[in-house]
Amino acid sequence: MTRLLIANRGEIVTRIARTARRLGMSVVTISSPVDSHAQWHRLADHTVLLDGDIPSESYTNSDQIIAARAGRGLRRRAPGLRISLRRLRFR
């Protein structure tokens, strides 16, 4: 089964996760400590908790997002709207 990392928060996670499920994908989300109990994580098979006291420190930290992907069998990712794709180099 293909696993999809959703690197975002809020309603967009819900929409992407629902679509991924319809396509037969497993869903992995990322979360800042502030959002760790947010409702959109209920749609995920797994949630990776990132470091950072505020969401802007977590969701825009490309090193943490790349580390979240490592070792989890993730072949696809749905990048966050504020993440620079030039900085995210998935191998």
From TrEMBL:
<dbReference type="GO" id="GO:0004075">
    <property type="term" value="F:biotin carboxylase activity"/>
</dbReference>
<dbReference type="GO" id="GO:0005524">
    <property type="term" value="F:ATP binding"/>
</dbReference>
<keyword id="KW-0067">ATP-binding</keyword>
<dbReference type="Pfam" id="PF00289">
    <property type="entry name" value="Biotin_carb_N"/>
</dbReference>
<dbReference type="InterPro" id="IPR005481">
    <property type="entry name" value="BC-like_N"/>
</dbReference>
<keyword id="KW-0436">Ligase</keyword>
<dbReference type="InterPro" id="IPR016185">
    <property type="entry name" value="PreATP-grasp_dom_sf"/>
</dbReference>
<keyword id="KW-0092">Biotin</keyword>
<dbReference type="InterPro" id="IPR011764">
    <property type="entry name" value="Biotin_carboxylation_dom"/>
</dbReference>
<dbReference type="InterPro" id="IPR050856">
    <property type="entry name" value="Biotin_carboxylase_complex"/>
</dbReference>
<feature type="domain" description="Biotin carboxylation">
    <location>
        <begin position="1"/>
        <end position="91"/>
    </location>
</feature>
<protein>
    <recommendedName>
        <fullName>biotin carboxylase</fullName>
        <ecNumber>6.3.4.14</ecNumber>
    </recommendedName>
</protein>
<keyword id="KW-0547">Nucleotide-binding</keyword>
